[in-house]
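ZP: hey, is the zinc ion complex queued? I don't see it on the tracker
AM: it wasn't, my bad. submitting now with these inputs:
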Amino acid sequence: MLTLCINKFKNVLMILLIGMLLMGNGNTMIDNIREANNHLSDSIRNTVVQSVLNEEDIQTFAARKAQVVIRCGEYQNKPGKRVYLNDIGLNFKDIPTDIKIHYDNEGAYIQEYDLNKKISMRIYEEMQERGIKVVYQDTKDRTQDLNRAGRIANEQNANIYLSVHTNYYNASSKGFFIMTNEGNQTARNIADRLSISMENNGMIPKRNALLNSGRIGEMNVINDSTIALLLEAGFYSNPNELKHLMSDEYVNYIAEHMANEMVEVLNDYWK
Ligand SMILES: [Zn+2]
């Protein structure tokens, strides 16, 4: 395995050197770097979740492939990323048929990933219907490394990255909000606009936007040329909000309103 890795590093270095000799043609060099990087990360994806070259350096030169990346948050069924129906006083009949029910020794439970999937898919579909060039990203089977998930999103170099999550604290926690990175006023303005568009849903209240101060890996690695947003659509630790988060009524409302506002935002900032 070690020899294999060394050989692959050699290949990357060779391509880099050849690329530098061909500096006259910038695209060729970048394509070569990208190819080498992809090849390497593909071949060792299951053992090492890291690229040899800094993805951001490559992306500085990359064209936009999408306007929006929607990421389905979470990737595995961790304790703490789930609620047991017994703990929250939910009956099977309260669970819509499109939400998966899982089982373990402690009983039946719902996991965050499945909620995020329903919500992120609906947002994706609504944006696609409005002609937005949107890419759906679910890294569940590709990586369990949040930084890597962010770097996969960077391949699109989109105007906006929107990672979709649902929140867990306690049974009385309330509200949705959108998080942005510190020191990015444009991101903050866009987050406020999208939040306001969802505000009158009548089910889950709006909270003030929060700032990522370096704690959220997937947001830390997003390209400087991409606005990073993280939606917490509500608290699934709150039985009342969980019902809404699972429901077509809430999910359709926020997906439609966010998609409408996203069309306006893209027009205002990038046309
Ligand atoms: Zn989450």
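AM: back. The pocket of zinc ion is lined by residues 73-74, 112, 165 (CB under 6 Å).
ZP: great, adding it to the tracker
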